Amino acid sequence: ELDFATGVAKWSDESCRIYGLSPEDNMHSFKSWLSFIHPDDRQRVIGEIQEAEKTGSGTSIKHRIVRPDGSIRYILSESRPEFGPDGRPVGVYGTAHDVTENTVLEQSLQASYKELETFIYRVSHDLRGPLASIQGLVRVSVLDVKDETALKHIGMIGDLAMKLDGLLTKLVHIMSVRDKKTTNDPVDVVQMVEGILSSLKFIDHFGNIKFSVNSNVKEMRTDSEALRSVLLNLVENAIKYHDYSRKMPFIDINIHRNGSPNVSIEISDNGQGIDEEVKDKVFDMFYRGTTSSKGTGLGLFIVKSTVEKLGGTITLESAKGKGSRFRLSIPVSD
Ligand code: ADP
Predict the structure, then answer these.
(1) How far is the CA of 82 from the centre of ligand 1 (A)?
(2) Ligand 1 in contact with 293 (CB < 6 A)?
(3) Is 296 in the pocket of ligand 1 (CB under 6 A)?
(4) 300 in ligand 1 pocket by Cβ < 6 Å?
(5) Is 324 close to ligand 1, i.e. is its CB under 6 Å away?
(6) What pTM value is reported for the model?
(7) How far is the centre of ligand 1, averaged over its atoms, from the C-alpha of 330 (Å)?
(8) How far apart (Å, rounded) are the C-alpha atoms in residues 37 and 20?
(9) Crossing angle of helices 224-240 and 189-199, rounded to 10°
(10) DSSP state for residue 11 in the 8-state scheme
(11) What is the CA radius of gyration of the chain?
(12) Which of 110, 126, 282, 295 has a CA between 20 and 30 Å from the CA of residue 133?
């Protein structure tokens, strides 16, 4: 507790222990406290305290200290101002929380995560070269080989190579979504949806579905490439997992903005639907809901990561045998 009138800060036994001091060494000043702070963190700490003084708010600062024996600890220092009866600040009280173990673990986790990311990125990239050669050889072999059985096998190799290529493309895409800075472009969202529908025209059963697009949003500002990839994935899934035994298979796309800073985009279908039990799993990496899925199980994982990168949310309402509705809420800047 620091008393502004006397300039004396009284430290608890535990604070003394954290700072490597004996419990008797418990009377300090703001200046003596600053002398414990790691020289590389000191300026930042002073800056944050000055900022908090201006607004009369508290602080929550993570910084390093150097103990008298030279050891370094990570501390979370939190403080609140104390005010006198006339509303003027009379002191500060606060806590010191030794967060060294957590911080060291966090740092090593982040380092491993970075390594894993680099590994996936490199492997996906490096495998694509030989894979492209295999695909090229498959195309050439189809022209040269006459034997029926061999041709069938070559066709199968071609299909598998294509599937692997799809998987690698998606892995590279996941990494680039994480690393890329988002842009802020004007998007005519109806035009974007229509473009997506026309790019999906050649998918099986496209012609059997009745699409309707409703919107009260003319233009929104967001990362257009990211939004396009999200909508493309969701619409493609709605087509892939439709129920073509229905009399009137439909996909509705509703885009609305009702005064809020977010635009809501709903993609609803009356397709196969998703079981309540697996509803939360569909956004997991590599999750495939049905054995009939020929996909990679990465689509909705990419969708969710991208939506979060845009600062938005995605929710799913679905009932098995009835249909699904994916609801996006995307913040837009005007
Ligand atoms: P993939 O399509 O490659 O299997 P996704 O991550 O895109 O992977 O989707 C995960 C699972 O969610 C799918 O395997 C499917 O079972 C289910 N799913 C996704 N979209 C729909 C939908 N519109 N209707 C029914 N099931 C869906």
Answers:
(1) 55
(2) yes
(3) yes
(4) yes
(5) yes
(6) 0.72
(7) 21
(8) 13
(9) 50
(10) -
(11) 29
(12) 295
Ligand 1 contact via 295 beta carbon (within 6 Å):
yes
Strands (E), the chain: 2-3, 8-10, 27-28, 59-66, 72-83, 89-98, 185-187, 210-215, 220-222, 250-256, 262-269, 313-319, 323-331
pLDDT of residue 291: 75
Which 8-state DSSP code applies to residue 203? S
As a whole number of Å, the end-to-end CA separation of the chain is: 46
Residue range 102-112, pLDDT digits in tens: 999 999 999 99
Structure tokens at 81: 């101002």
**How does pLDDT run across 191-200, given as a tens digit for each residue?**
999 999 999 9
Which positions of the chain have pLDDT values less than 70?
Answer: 334
CA 297 to centroid of ligand 1, rounded, Å: 7
Would you give the DSSP letter of residue 208?
G
Give the residue ranges of DSSP H helices in 72-223: 100-144, 148-179, 189-199
Residues 6+ apart with CB under 8 A from 296: 163, 166, 167, 170, 286
Q: Give the residue among 63, 7, 57, 64 at the shortest CA–CA distance from 30.
A: 7
Largest separation between any pair of C-alpha atoms in the chain: 97
